[in-house]
Amino acid sequence: MTVIHNLGFPRIGVQRELKRAVEAYWAGKQSREALEQAGRELRARHWRQQADAGLKFVPVGDFAWYDQILEWTTLLGAIPARFGQTAGAPVDLDTLFRLGRGRAPTGTPAAACEMTKWFDTNYHYIVPELSPNQQFRIAREYLFEQVEEARAQGYAVKPVIPGPLTWLWLGKGDAFLNGAQDEGKLKLLEALLPVYRLVLERLAGQGVEWVQIDEPILTLDLPQAWKEAFGQVYAEFQTAPVKILLATYFDGLKDNLATASGLPVAGLHVDLSRAPEQLALVAADLRPDQVLSAGWISGRNIWRTDLEAAVAALTPIKAALGDRLWLAPSCSLLHVPVDLEQETELDNELKSWLSFARQKLAELNLLARKLDGIDDDATRADWTAQQNALAVRRASARIHNPAVAQRLAESRNVSRDRAAFAARISSQQAALDLPAFPTTTIGSFPQTQEIRTLRRDWKSGALTDAQYEHAIREEIERVIRFQEEIDLDVLVHGEPERNDMVEYFGELLAGFAFTRNGWVQSYGSRCVKPPIIFGDVARPAPMTVGWSSYAQSLTARPVKGMLTGPVTILQWSFVRDDQPRETTCRQLALALRDEVNDLEAAGIKVIQIDEPAIREGLPLRKADWKHYLGWAVDCFRLSTSGVQDDTQIHTHMCYSEFNDIIDSIAAMDADVITIETSRSNMELLEAFEDFHYPNDIGPGVYDIHSPNVPEVQWMVDLMNKAAARLPRERLWVNPDCGLKTRAWPETRAALVAMVQAAKDLRAAA
Ligand code: GLN
Ligand code: ZN
Question: Which amino acids does the record list as binding Zn(2+) (predicted)?
Answer without folding.
Answer: 652, 654, 676, 737
